[in-house]
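Many introductory courses stop at the sequence. We go one step further.
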Amino acid sequence: MEKGSNTAEIQYTVDARDHRLNNLRVEMLFRPPRGRVELCMPVWTPGAYRVEDFAKHIVEIDAFNSAGRRIALEKSDKSSWVLNADGRDITVKYRVHAHTITVHHSFFDDTHLTINGASVFLYARGMESQPATVRLIPHDGWNVVSTGLRHTEDKWTFRAENYDTLVDSPIEAGNHESIHFKCMEKDHEIAIYGSSTIDTRKFASDVEKIVRAQISIMKNVPYERYVFIYDLLPGASGGLEHLNSTHCLADPFSFRIREEYIAKLSTISHEFFHLWNVKRLRPVPLGPFDYSKEVYTKLLWFSEGFTSYYTYIALRKARIQTPAEFMRSNARTAEIFLQTPGRNYQSAEESSFDTWIKFYRPDENTVNSVISYYTKGQLIGMLLDIHIIDRTGGRRRLDDVMRLLYRKTYGEGKGFTEEDFIESLSEVCDGDGKTLYRKLVASRGDLPLARYLALAGLEMKWHSERKAACLGIRMSENSPEIVDSVIEGMGAAEAGVLPGDEIIAVNGMRAKARELKNRIAEFSPGENIRLTVSRHGLMKDIEVKASEKPGQLRFVQNQKAGERQRRNYEKWSYSRWKEGLDYDKVRDPASHLKRNEML
């Protein structure tokens, strides 16, 4: 290390001058104790519960002693290397291929660089608690860099207090637009890469409204500076939370279409609420992290599902969504839940625990065997919120549970358990936390949606223009003539249609993929439809009794609701009862329509 440097500090240099082959050149300078040293690359990144094996992106790697001579570096498993240290400085030089556009990976070309730390930075086992610096050598012509890491006097050099912080702080570099605003006397930055139809002034204003709404819910601002990294790339989507920043991807178009714009803002709202829920208010296993293997928790329904619930609470509280849009956002989730047979085979706890092998590794039978902890958790949050409002006469709501649990656990420097949640829930809603947990969280099957919604003067109504036939299948996105999944309990499943079947004809007439939707629409529920399919090259006729195609689920006001129910409604939805719910102007985003397209 350089004379006068902090020998306990691990120094990373990321060279982004040469974008050929999308390879970043990285150096890691550190001083390990004498003896065997294990260098590791994470197999996953926090917030994305899927084994990624980031070591696969390392193209070459070498180690050098303080004299600059190469030393032996032996690979010990899929993500680790071993060397022998002499107690002096060691430099590890490696190249990382960065060409994956997701919020879990890194991407590098001549236009910009996005670093998600788990996919770029090695760590020395046992030295994860040591501070680190990152120096970026930018591509020629780059002038802007954005990150949640602590800045130094050098624009391109940053500090992290430990490896967890380093991995939890993405970096965006290039010539992106950077918008700054202050909220609650804290600095906020929105770093926007990409050409788009976005109105940056309006977007920044709406992001600020979301920030204010969520701070008013949690009544706590646990940062001095927050950075939104927002990459606009064709076909891209998603978001990943970080300690004092987030990295989001969005398609650059459709910002002027209201439902699509709100969908994009919902990603921002979701990731920002993670600032409290999971980054600080966290299940015990989720920090400090073990990056070498899967980390299990039964509480993702809380960490992700409640965050999904507060996504829309914040949008409504900020007056970004209308009352009807807010209702439809929750009803849309209930619609997905009720159309997913997997709800009968997994509780919210089981879904959380098995995310590594089920939710994050979907297959043709996922719809029949898995329920998303995002989906069920959002609905649990909604039901508990309404229940608490009703039980306490509007004096308390789910916000109080969140704040209490936050103070009791993060406020005391620890994670929380299922028992901690039950205790806080019981304290807020007068003692029935354990019963509620058993019925809503630990149980499989349907949730008591109608009963709890009635407490807020609402009814569940299925809306459709007409009764339409449905086979109960979803087609492959890449090969639309191939059945991708078959929904348990519907006509196609009962008749024996299988994933992988190629639909050739309907009632003896050739049916091309683009015609299938209209061909099925000609029938009525209860009619028999003869499908000719190719299964492993063999032709087969299957007689299917058409099911009724589900309509759009809406939460509508029950005009017979009493004064108590109307007050609950107003408290819960930040809306006045007499405003009503105008669904005529509400549209679902294309992503929902596409995902839920069922024949």
